[in-house]
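Input.
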Amino acid sequence: DIVWRDPSGGQVAVWLMDGATFKQAAFVPVSVGANYKLEKVADINGDGKGDLLWRDTSNGQIGYWLMDGVVLSSGTFLQEFVSLDYVIEGFADLNGDAQADILWRNNGTAGVPVGRMAIWLNDASTSSFLFPLANKVWSLDVPMDYKVVGMKDWDGDGKADIAWRNGLGQVAVWLMDGAVIKPGGAFFVTNGTSQNLNNLGLNAERVVTRQRLLDEAGNTTGLALDLGSLSGNGGYSGVVSGLDNDDMFRFVLSTGTTVSLGLTGLTGNADLQLLNGSGGVVATSAASGTTSESISQTLVAGTYFARVYSTGNVRAEYSLGFDISGAKLVRDLTTNTADSDPANFIQIGATTYFTANSIKTGTELWKTDGTATGTVLVKDIRTGFDTTLLDSPEPYSSDPQGLFKLGNTLFFTADDGVVGRELWKSDGTATGTSLVKDIRTGVVSGDPRDLVVLGTSLFFTANDGVTGYELWKTDGTTGGTSLVKDIIPGAIGSNLFGTTAMNGSLYFWAQNASKTYDLWKSDGTGSGTVLVKTFDSTNSDPGELLVAGSMLYFSASTATSGMELWKSDGTNAGTVLIKDIESGTQGSNPYSPVLMNGQVYFTASTTANGDELWKSDGTAAGTVLVKDTYVGAASGNLNDLLVAGNALYFTAYNSTNGRELWKSDGTTAGTALVKDIASGLDSANPSALTLLNGAVYFAAKDILNGYELWKTDGTTAGTVLVKDINTGLSDSRPVSLFTSGTTLFFSAKTASNGSELWKTDGTANGTVLVRDINLQSDNSFPSNLTNFQNTLYFVSNSSLTGRELYKSNGTNSGTVLVKDVEPGQFGSKPRSLTIVGNTLYFIANTSSTGEELWKTDGTDVGTILVKDIVPGTSSARPIYLTAGANLLYFVAYDATNGDELWKSDGTASGTVLVKDINPGISISNPTNLRTIGNTVYFSATDGVNGYELWKSDGTASGTVLVRDVNPGSGDGVTENIAVMNGSVYFVGYNPSNGAELWKSDGTTSGTVLLKDINPGGGNSTPQYLTDVGNTLYFTAYDPTNGYELWKSDGTSAGTILVKNINAGASGSGPYGFVSMNNTTYFVANNSINGYELWKTDGTSVGTSLVKDFNIGSSGSEISELTVVGNNIFFSASTTDEGVELWKSDGTSAGTVLAKSNGPGVISSSPSDLIQIGGKLYYTAYDLEGGIELWSL
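Output.
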């Protein structure tokens, strides 16, 4: 085995090996100082396990650790200091007691002859230490020219001997008896450089240079453990920790395939990434805690890396599994991925924090250093999934908000689903991200908001359920989080907002008893929280507070002036109206105040000029209109005011240019349009103005590029597109622009990635996607899986074509569109794929023909409309496509005949109405079509006899009523028609017998009641009629047994109950009959195990439960039973896995989970199972791909 040591921290690690196979690893929980050198690994105490011998290189002190594998059993440092002139030459059992002894040698000049040897004989029975003084011999001298090259038992006495060799190649051997050389045991062999003695090799022991802990799977792609060309499946067990938080594995794919990675057996939180050959992130699995991680991606041939990593000081043992032989995603046809919508950016040090959404964690706290690998989830605060959304489970979100920093600590609000929305803090690690205080105890939220720093405290508004929304403060501890003052005593609260710090005090708006707002201030104490000024009852919506030196500017309302511009120095007397801009009570409604060059700029509305740009120096005379951007009474409706040096940028609208980017130096002449980006009256609609490196960045659109990222230096020529991120006319819609040093982070949308995290340095090349955080793609919703000429045909959504017909040979590249029948984003929505000979028929809907009958031979040119039955855009609405020997039967509508029986030979002329069974516009509504050769049986009504059994040979004359089972206008046959051995079986009803099993040979006389299972007028209502190996299995009811398993050979005597599975009259409700290896499998409920998998050989004793794999009476909700070779695959639900793919060979032990796509109980819900060429195809859900096509 191998021992490692990190000299920087003294930590020791042990690897237990099985040849070249890595078995187990662990850190020893005791560190050794930097002065200590690991001299030797050997079995000191004779237990057959390696131990460690240490030496202090500063004073020569000796110590040992007795090891039990990776566990430190005991250890001590001896009170003995060996001169540093002595070095350990070897470690072996010299006296035959199975304990390692030490061979020393003096290589210096410390008072003894140079070259003098010393031997310490180990004694594990010693109570004090292992090397008693009596066992130490110091008097053996050897010339320095000789070096020890091996210690081994060469004379077979069970005691190690010593081999020497000098520079001339001479070899010497000491045959030892403990610390004594045997008589005649010292001799030399002078055979040059040969190191053989009596044909026994002298196995010299190498001294390996100790260095920092080397990780077999290195921390970078360059140091990755090379797994070579990956095929089949395999695994690796390892550990990541705070000292070694990355393990990287390199593998090569010789051909394109689906690779499944799994991280299991976690003892701590570790995550999993798949990287491409350049180190770019392909996929990430980052569940919380010890939840297993999984990634399944279809990859092209090339080099890839698997990365196992932990964040923070977290230690996690793991097992990494690779599989390219199991279930594979065939192809994700909707490659557009979902949005992560990064937002709420804030910078602390070199780290930028933000919120983002992923399919595995919901909206949580993230951080980035601007690289893909450095963009990581901080913590999944609210774990788990809402699994009530069965088709598309959604992760719960804590939805962090109000990100604010106090020193180097990030504060924010979040809802963990346990205590509601409360105050949290983070140091950037998962372990350092924690709840500060549950202000409103229990699941109801304290709802902190308006976070602001004053001094060393963070202030905010919160509701503890007792005082209502009031002012609180915190130092980051639970005990240091407290109410400052209950301004309005009781549960009503003052609902304060707009908290702003100025000159050591906080200013804010607080509600009074009249529900209007007054101006308050606070020094952070209850007594120091006082009213500044009371406003009258019209002040229900005051504006934000802007600090300008030692003065606050804001908008407030009074009954005499309306909403106007005010200022305050923090005193009642110093809180005054600056100017009644719009004389009278109407008010000018100032908003969006900003400070530039000592003056306040804002927007205000007047009757004369509309909503325009104003400025104020704090006096009435100095409060003036800067410019009327939309001349006259109309409004420029200014937005996004941003100060950049000596210029104010904003957006404004007028009838000449639309909404565009403007700037102002504070003068009328210096206030002008920067550039008409969308020429003429069209608007560029600039937004999200943000300053970076002296330039202003913003989002805007023009006629060529859509809504993209722009920048300006304030000149027309210098106002340019940074990059067309979502190329063409499509919009990337940059939002949440945030400056972090010399980098601008933002959220932008592309067709392939969705709204994700981007960054820019101001150049097109430097504008790049940082990381696609939310890798979930849209659902393709494959359906109608059909085996046509040993190729899979199916219907699927696609990012390019909408919902159309596809085919697949089971590979990514071999999964292709057959034809884009209806070009555009919606597609033709094909359905009802039906094979007749070498033709695949289906129904498709186009804007020119409506919903009609189509066919394909699998090629684009061979995919054509068969016939536009209802010419023009109206639809024939074909249904119930059914294959005959060489004819297709179906039901279709036309305005003359209504819904009737049609047939087609694949040509327009050969696609005709068979017969108008219910003459005129009235409908016969044929259903339950089944064929024997080219004869089709079905139920229909002619308007006289009700729904009865009919048949047709494809001609009008040959389309006839077989038998009126329920004479008169009542219905005799409505459902459940099956074919077996040339006969038709169906459920027929008449008042004498009820709903019972009938059969027909196609003649009236040959159409008979097979058996009256529930005698008399009661119904047995047979269901699930299925031909399984020339035996008809079905479910039927009688009062004694309930709905149970029956079978029929086509005779009355041979129509019998197989078994009363659920004893008594409750019934087991069997369904899903399939045959494998002369055994019929089905699903039934015996009331003990719930609905589980059963099998039968057709006898009662041969009918048994296969396996209760969802233990208890809840059952497994089994469906989609499909035979592939010697296994039945099916969809089933368990409490541990949710609804997943299972398989069974018919035995309990062989009934196992085949594939689970989702972590925990998140269901993949497999459906549409079909076997083609020994391979199983099906549709299933996974977190990243949505509902897609899979194979196994």
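DSSP finds no helices and 100 strands in the chain.
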